[in-house]
């Protein structure tokens, strides 16, 4: 009588965009599938946490973590594969909508994992949804890529004349960004206007001394 309380219809809002086939083929693939797609995960959720959660519904065959295509770090989704279809149905019924790491996770049917599907398909390497997200989500890497790309760049350092601040990398600028002043040059002493003729010309002094001897 257990089948009277089990929903035998397969309902799935998720579908693999790169699936080689149409909608009818996808529905046929998930009809007897033992694989689930899990989305809206935190980047910090671990594989051990997922084994513990989904293991409450049955024996888990394997979990494949979704990874950033470039950084090879978790990017918010995974695939959970069971040994038996009945365990997969239980997980679909009881786990979807639960909170994990303060996030409501989404569980849906999947047609079966194929190598390569564990990598994000966004241009930055993560999921496509994070390419267009404009809000701040601490559990998914902070700001969305669309918001980061639209942030204005910091203004360039200002220039001014010799009397002002110049760029730090400008020629003649010191470590504080100020233009270095040239070292002052020693001034030459000007000849004194009160110097006597004797001081200016020693020969004149010798002549005068001779004159004094003659007198």
Can you describe this structure?
The chain is about 25% helix and about 15% strand. It has seven helices and eight strands; from the N terminus they run αβαββαβββαββααα. A four-stranded antiparallel β-sheet has the order 2-3-1-6. A two-stranded antiparallel ribbon has the order 4-5. The C terminus is likely disordered.
Specify Rg, calculated over alpha carbons.
Answer: 42 Å
Quantity of strands, as a count = 8
What would the principal axes of the Cα set say about the shape?
elongated
Poorly predicted ranges: 210-215
**Which strand order do you get reading across the main beta sheet?**
2-3-1-6
For the terminal residues, how far apart are their CA atoms? 157 Å
Q: Please summarize the sheet with the most strands.
A: 4 strands, antiparallel
Give the helices and strands as they follow along the chain. HEHEEHEEEHEEHHH
* Share of residues in strands: 15-25%
Mean pLDDT: 76
List the helices and strands and how they pair.
Layout: H1 23-31, E1 35-39, H2 47-54, E2 60-67, E3 74-82, H3 85-94, E4 99-100, E5 103-104, E6 106-110, H4 129-132, E7 136-137, E8 142-143, H5 145-150, H6 197-200, H7 202-214
Antiparallel strand pairs: 1-3, 1-6, 2-3, 4-5, 7-8
Task: Output the keywords.
215 residues, alpha+beta, two-stranded antiparallel ribbon, 7 helices, elongated, disordered C terminus
Summed up, what is this model?
This protein has 215 residues and is of the alpha+beta class.
